[in-house]
Design goal:
Structural class: alpha+beta
Number of helices: 2
Number of domains: 1
Distance between the termini: 17 Å
Oligomer: single chain
Number of strands: 5
Helix content: 25-40%
Mean pLDDT: 91
Strand order of the largest sheet: 1-2-3-4-5
Radius of gyration: 12 Å
Strand content: 25-35%
Largest sheet: 5 strands, antiparallel
């Protein structure tokens, strides 16, 4: 079963999904019609970042960048902890 995590940011539900063999999580805006928001990259470093691929959501993602990256880092820590344990 593929690991998936769901979080709420400013009233929007986000789903994080790992990308095989990469230190990144795909970020999906869930809802009636899910939209790929982008990816949080460099999760294996101290400086992860958000890459937005959904032009209509750039402003919202930029406004909530810190929360999205923080949640992704928490999810990444949980995934890597499960893999090590």
């Amino acid at each position: 079963m593929q690991f998936k995590a769901l979080v709420w940011v400013d009233g929007r539900r986000l789903r994080f999904e790992p990308v095989l063999k990469q230190p990144r999580l795909r970020v999906i805006l869930t809802g009636a019609e899910p939209v790929a928001l982008g990816s949080v990259i460099r999760l294996d470093t101290g400086e992860p970042g958000l890459r937005v691929s959904a032009p209509l959501h750039v402003e919202w993602a930029t406004e909530h960048l810190e929360a999205i990256v923080r949640h992704a880092a928490d999810v990444w820590a949980e995934i890597t902890h499960e893999c090590e344990g």
